[in-house]
Backbone:
């Protein structure tokens, strides 16, 4: 796995991350496919219309269903779902954070109950590495505790230290094991430390000691003020290795992504394009549309006449509103495809602005436009 930076504009970078399942042009947005599927979107559409270069899977959910046995028989997640491009898997740390009522964290790992049937399970740094080997993801995430917000400094420090201990165990076990399906896998450590600058500095320096193909920033976009997120992102990017990709986990809005790229982030993921799409919210280069609004009832203009996406040109705003009001499943599907394609075009535009050397100028205008409500 190799990363090369081809152009810079300020702190923004345009690079190429090479994996066993193809190259990823950065900055990049990664659609979330928690259970091995991006909700409501076929892989043909992901490849050809949305032009996704990499998708996510989730270790926690795939471990519970379909389970390690099925995945290994299928040849990993690539063999199971037929996606032939790169995959990244979250370690399940965020799910552990979100299932706070049915889990217990210890130094050894996390004991939790399945949200499906209540059965009891344990995740450790070692068996999470083993599960991600079975999944066969090109990029594996270290097992961490996603520190909640708000958290007092004492808790945040303890949580960060636990993440660091788990990283050492993940790293050691990762290097004692081998990929199962003939392609290379890379392990990304994760920076934690909540909103405390000194803890974030400690964590960024600590994880940078581990020779890895990339590094991630976790524990943001969990309720903290947006400006705090930006401040921490910039701080951590100034510490992490300059020659490796940086992944800001679970972020975010188009404006968040534009600002993150400006601070030096290369990779993003978020459920927002599909989740908001299922709830009738469309992101466009000229602002946000709520497709349930009555104002679209007699608007027969295309969803987005400036978009190259076929459905954006052939589907009217009136018709899309009708689908949502009528409860037709096609509405959320079309909106999800539109939003994902928009996110991928946005990072492609950002990449071109970096190549052209005018990222700051482009970003100021793009951020303002995408935040407008139409």
Residues:
């Amino acid at each position: 796995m190799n990363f090369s930076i081809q152009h810079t504009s300020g702190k923004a970078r345009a690079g190429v991350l090479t994996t066993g399942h193809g190259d990823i042009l950065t900055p990049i947005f990664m659609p979330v496919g928690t259970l091995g599927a991006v909700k409501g979107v076929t892989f043909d559409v992901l490849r050809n219309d949305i032009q996704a270069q990499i998708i996510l899977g989730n270790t926690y959910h795939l471990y519970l269903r379909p389970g390690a046995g099925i995945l290994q028989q299928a040849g990993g997640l690539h063999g199971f779902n037929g996606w032939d491009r790169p995959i990244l898997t979250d370690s399940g740390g965020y799910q552990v954070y979100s299932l706070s009522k049915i889990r217990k964290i210890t130094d050894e790992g996390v004991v939790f109950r399945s949200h499906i049937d209540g059965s009891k399970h344990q995740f450790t740094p070692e068996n999470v590495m083993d599960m991600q080997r079975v999944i066969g993801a090109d990029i594996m995430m270290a097992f961490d505790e996603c520190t909640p917000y708000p958290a007092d400094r004492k808790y945040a420090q303890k949580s960060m230290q636990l993440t660091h201990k788990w990283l050492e165990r993940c790293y050691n076990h990762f290097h004692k094991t081998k990929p199962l399906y003939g392609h290379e896998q890379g392990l990304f450590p994760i920076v934690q430390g909540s909103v405390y600058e000194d803890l974030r500095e400690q964590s960024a320096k600590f994880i940078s000691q581990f020779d890895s193909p990339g590094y991630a920033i976790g524990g943001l976009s969990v309720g903290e003020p947006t400006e705090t997120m930006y401040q921490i992102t910039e701080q951590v990017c100034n510490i992490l290795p300059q020659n490796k990709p940086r992944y800001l986990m679970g972020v975010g809005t188009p404006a968040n992504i534009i600002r993150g790229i400006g601070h030096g982030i290369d990779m993003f993921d978020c459920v927002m394009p599909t989740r908001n799409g299922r709830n009738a919210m469309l992101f466009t280069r000229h602002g946000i549309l709520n497709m349930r609004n009555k104002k679209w009832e007699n608007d027969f203009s295309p969803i987005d006449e400036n978009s190259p996406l076929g459905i954006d040109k052939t589907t009217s705003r009136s018709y899309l509103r009708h689908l949502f009001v009528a409860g037709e499943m096609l509405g959320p599907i079309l909106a999800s495809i539109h939003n994902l394609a928009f996110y991928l075009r946005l990072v492609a535009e950002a990449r071109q602005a970096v190549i052209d050397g005018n990222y700051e100028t482009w970003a100021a205008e793009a951020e303002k436009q995408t935040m407008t409500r139409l």
